[in-house]
Amino acid sequence: MRLFLRLALGLVAAAHVVLASSPTGMTVHLERRHFLLNDDNTVNFKAVANHAKQLSHKYTFLMKKFKDNMGKDHPLLNALVDALNKRGEGEVSLTDIRSELLWAGEIQFGNSKFKLDFDTGSADTLVNPGAYEPQKSSSSRKTSDGFETSYADNTHAVGAIYTDNMVFGGLKAKNVAIGLSKTRFSDDGESVGIAGLGFPSIQAFPKKYDPIFVALMHQNAVAEPVFQFTLKPGVGSTLHLGGVDHSKVKDKLNYVDVNPDDGFWITDGSVQGVKTKFVIDSGTTLIIGPMDQVLEVISKLPGVTPHYHLSSLQATFDCSRPPTVDFEINGKKYKLDKQQASYGTSFGRCVLSIMGQRGLPMNAWVLGDAFMQSVSVVFDMGRNRMGFAPSA
Q1: Would you please indicate which residues are annotated as catalytic (active-site) residues?
Q2: What family is it from (predicted)?
């Protein structure tokens, strides 16, 4: 279940973690979980609708937190939508759980080790009750700050913010903030919470608490203020910390500037020639955009048939004839291959990994797992930029 916080936000997934050496640091191997398909590999449209609804809730919440933190509306705010009524390197390897959604790996706070999802679309760290045991850590401190969580089903949970020493991908930082929930917000296997990798301007915790990667940066724990996602079906996916692993890419990285004040990892781009903005979000499964823009893109894809379902727009195609979908960023085109173009089937046809959603609180496309499996993405917090290249 995706949750929406007043003072923290997160997602959950199962994970299996192995540490391994890499050419540039440590690797933590992650797994991912699939929840949008039935056992026969057909699409569970109810789950998809909930996923899209929860994505809208997530970004509505984060837009509010941005305004709280920055004193102004987010530049991507869609006003037409009533949606707001040691220095070194480490690497986290990601492993596919059942072939969809959310990337998780091991992290340690104090004496507690657990698995969290890594989400570039949020900025706080939150865990289920019992996952983090502050009473067993001499370095744990309970702060005077708390948080309240708000779920898509209108249930709530509250908890306290602690600080403790953290170990992440072999890298260490002191007095890092973690939210400990009093009620369980995830029943998704081994993963017990979320770790946000967005910029501080969208964090729900008070500003005095650094997000986890920012804490590593400020405490000089990383050789470079950079992390890199390389996602693949099955095994071989990695989150590299503290530098760029060039063995993961086939070509020169294509860099674009980002504005850290925006909070999200945002860039200009186009899909099938339709100009828009992209938010790169490792906590999202599909590629989701405004309804009108997605319809325009679908109309340019031969053999793709649009289907409306409640407040969403989806599409299907003959599985033997997958469409070629081009995402252009800074003059370079990145294509979804056959596997990424679809995430399941319905009545013998493949369902497109791109969907339109009415009620998105921002005028942008959210590029999740379906896009990120086609490229390796470098997130450079030092130079405020992102780099893209086809995965090796």
Answers
A1: 119, 281
A2: Belongs to the peptidase A1 family.
